[in-house]
Amino acid sequence: MEKPILFSTSMVKAILAGRKTLTRRIIKRVPPETHRFEEMDDGTFEAYWGGYAPDIPAFIDGCTRMKFRPYCLPGDILWVKETWHYETHMHDLTAGEPDLPSGRYSHRYIYRASNPVYPVDVGVAEHGWRPSIHMPREAARILLKVTDVSAERLQDITEEEARREGAVKTYPYTCPVTGKTAHMQDDNGTFRDGFACIWDSLNAARGFGWDTNPWVWVIEFEREGVK
């Protein structure tokens, strides 16, 4: 089955460079008391938490449980939605005549991850980059094949997994004057800290920062193709 998946420009670059083969996505509406997820034979997962909830009939071994279906399953194909632009070229315009009747048009999609500074040439209509969420299927150039899906707490990520998330090594530095903390890229840092920085830039404002340690889907993939 094909499904879309959004990636930031920096993560698209990591995918294209072969540095990113994992992604973590928030599991929505998880009861806060959840203490474990178990994978079922049908590919779904069951969340377990302590205490009896009379409005939820599924009750086993002293725990209440609820079934969750991951966004994707092994074997699914994910087409990447990234920041993009639809470019139009106008050719063979005859001087002194209306453009539309005399012109021929060609089109192509371009991508911010591969064109960080977009050149505005003569005859090119430039209207700015378009958000990844609005990318149509026909514009997608990157396909990913899902190889594994699991569920875990965000902070359970290992150093090796953080590297495979496309993170770079950073370390937190707190300014003694302002008290503000920044993440400095340095080989003496860790991939986990680098991943935490990336995660917060994308999810902290939504209430799912690194410090909240949410439950996440861990999606492993391999690049299927790039147009």
Describe this structure in words.
This is ASCH domain-containing protein. It is a single chain. The protein has 227 residues and is mainly beta. The chain folds into two domains: 2-80 and 141-226, Archaeosine Trna-guanine Transglycosylase, Chain: A, domain 4; 84-130, no CATH class. The chain contains four helices and 13 strands. The strands form four sheets. It has a five-stranded mixed sheet with strand order 1-7-10-13-2. The chain has a four-stranded antiparallel sheet with strand order 3-4-6-5, with no helix packed on it. Strand 11 and strand 12 (181-185) form a beta hairpin.
Secondary-structure arrangement, i.e. CATH architecture of the largest domain: Roll
Helical coverage, percent range: 10-25%
CATH topology of the largest domain: Archaeosine Trna-guanine Transglycosylase, Chain: A, domain 4
CATH class of the largest domain: Mainly Beta
Strand content: 35-45%
| The CATH homology group name of the largest domain | Hypothetical protein
State the separation between the terminal residues, measured CA to CA. 19 Å
Shape: globular
Summing up helix and strand content along with how strands pair, one would put the structural category as mainly beta
Q: Figure out the total of helices.
A: 4
* Beta strand count: 13
